[in-house]
Amino acid sequence: MSDYHYYSNPNYGAPPPPPNGYGYGPPGGYVPPNGQPPPIPASSYPGPPLQNYGPPPPSHAGYSPSYMPPPQGHQYAPPPPPAFSSYPVAGYQPPPAAYPNQPQQSQAPIIYYMNVPVPSPAYHLPPQGDIAPGYEPTMDVDKIRKATKGFGTDEAALISVFGHLGSLPMAALAAAFKARVGKDLEDVLKSETGGYFGETLRALVLGPLWYDVDLVHSAIKGAGTDELLLTEIIADRTPSDRQNLFIAYRMRYGRDLQADIRGDLSAKTERMYTMMLSANPPPDHAPLDYKQIESDVKALYKAGQGKIGTDEIAFCDIIINRSRTYLAALCDAYARKYKSLTKVIKSEFSGHMRQTLLFIVEGAKPKHAVEGPGIWRDAKMLEKSMKGLGTKDKQLVRRIVRYHWDRNRFEAITAAYHKKYKKSLESRVAGETSGDYKKLLVELVRGA
């Protein structure tokens, strides 16, 4: 197997991810080089300034240590603070104008999105150069050209290329293909492949960030809104992830994502999504305040169980604007005093609001903390894509593709799936799909 396969060298020499998943940098912010992106309205930035990377995260791909139940006496001990500095090593650097004799930057810098290294969307620069050390795209470009030239398409050759590339090699391949062939790789695959096989290939070529941009746009375009898809992309995200999504969306469509989402929704559903888009919760490693947890337990009770009717906005305010670690402690405290918070949400809410609040809470609740935040929830989401009469292929494609980029986390998801359903995710996917589409999805799952 080639040394550029992502599960043998997941980050390809890329810089380590941010220490707390939020990408905060030193005071004063990062000053971009020449070739900076067009200005974006301040309303598009609910979180801190876009920063480069810092030291590597703890286990489970950038998540903070899992919440542990409090010791006797209800003393909620916060997770230990990181042993490393929160700031990038290099510190502040003056803008390029201060160095007139220095060459200008020739490629987009690497950032982290969903704990995966990707070229920054904030620059009109191709991801060329040695962004994926150890990977040389020339042979893969030749394979793709051979597989897509002439009559018919060699699907097996395409699977051998796209079934194993990590996020940075995929970006390097797309850039090299365009430079050598003069066509977008995405367009070539769209014309040469079809069905869910072609859709999966296209999702892989787009990479983690640009695929999310494509998905969020599809969720709100046309008549009606796909609220479930919107929730999967927007909810339970760090401020820096949302910020990068806003930037990339504007780069692709020339529009403000927050405004587009608000214009597609109404009433309290619109307010809930506006809260998620604007949320700036503390990082997961922030110390827990037990008095605040106790206060939130009372507030949630008064907003739900403790009254006739439900104060949806008060409920959303607490659930949306707290860190995952805090929510885990809150779920535990509420269950000790009343009952499971998920049961309360199921009885007090309905429709899209219920669906979204459950998505957030089930990603944080401490019942399965050992697997990591969101692991158990995402394993169940995969099963929901295949359960019942017929496979929900669009859901299955997007979930496998989105989950598979973060290999460590995907391994935890596949392990949780096997633990819960007593069968491997690979065999389940193989039984629900067929043809080249099946072979490609199985190859992606096998990588875990």
TrEMBL record:
It comes from Collybiopsis confluens. This is Annexin. Keywords: Annexin, Calcium, Calcium/phospholipid-binding, Repeat. GO terms for cellular component: cytoplasm; nucleus; plasma membrane; vesicle membrane. Residues 34-59, 67-82 have a biased composition (Pro residues). Pfam families: Annexin (PF00191). Signal peptide: none annotated. It comes from the Eukaryota. The keyword ATP-binding does not apply. Belongs to the annexin family. Residues 1-12 have a biased composition (Low complexity). SMART domains: ANX. The lineage of its organism: Eukaryota, Fungi, Dikarya, Basidiomycota, Agaricomycotina. GO terms for molecular function: calcium ion binding; calcium-dependent phospholipid binding; phosphatidylserine binding. Residues 1-82 are annotated as: Disordered.
